3-methyl-2-oxobutanoate hydroxymethyltransferase (Arthrobacter gallicola), 284 residues
Amino acid sequence: MTSAEQPTPYGTGKAASPVPPKRVRISYLQQLKDSGGKFAMLTAYDQYTAAIFDEAGIETLLIGDSAANNVMGHETTLPITLDEMIVFAKSVSSGANRALIVCDLPFGSYEVSPAQAIASSVRLMKEAGVQAVKMEGGAHYADHVRSMTAAGIPVMAHIGFTPQSEHALGGYKVQGRGDAAQAVVDDAVALTEAGAFCVLMEMVPAEVAAAVDAAVPVPTIGIGAGSATTGQVLVWQDMAGLGAGKAPRFVKTYADLRTVLSTAAREFADEVRTGVFPGPEHSF
């Protein structure tokens, strides 16, 4: 092989995307960022969806505090507790063998101090088997991130619209418009310099997300943040069309699972009522 044919080393320019590993780790996501590659992330809250998404090649699974809305039926993410997150995270860890498993630190589990954030993260890693945690908040939490990474805890930062702060932010609103754009970039830089291995941006203008992606050396993930980020994440129930009502603008629905399940349930009920099920083949 001549020198001209040598592949470009990661970190020195754009290169071919790396070969997918048997186990996705944060180093692989960094290789994708360095090479101009992309990766996918979906939420998961149980062993079956975790296994399905893992087998489908989803690189990163997020046990989101969105379980409060999408599993437990709360109006916001605020009520879910750390103990409840651990139960969901254990289920996902038992179902996935390849994906990087990241878990949200829920509201009230990290804000008091870096020590509280470390203690909560240690529980998630020891008791639930996750490989990283995600924490909402801007540059104010740089000391938290610095202490957590020093303790060996990989931290994914979450900036832009942060659902745990929806009351302070005045509801579900796009963040970083106009004069507020630079603050989003500054948050990302501060958290990255503190040790965050990745920055997730929610509901920010596409051009702001692109500026963040250019300003930080680590991978970025978008949800309602345009296409310039390294990764994209969706809540799986939104992606698969399980919920009722209108989906957010940034969601693309890839299936109509609500109709599939509804049809199956009706067919089951009809067969029970008419005596078709169970048939001889279902009996001992």
Summary: The mean pLDDT is 94. The radius of gyration is 21 Å. The longest helix spans residues 257-274. The longest strand covers residues 155-160.
